[in-house]
Amino acid sequence: MRDESNHKSPPGRGQPAEKGWFRTLVERSPMGISVARDGITLYANPSCARLFGYDHPGELVGTSQLGRVAPESRRQVTDCIERRRRGEPAPLGYDCLLYTSPSPRDS
Question: pTM for the complete prediction?
Answer without folding.
Answer: 0.70
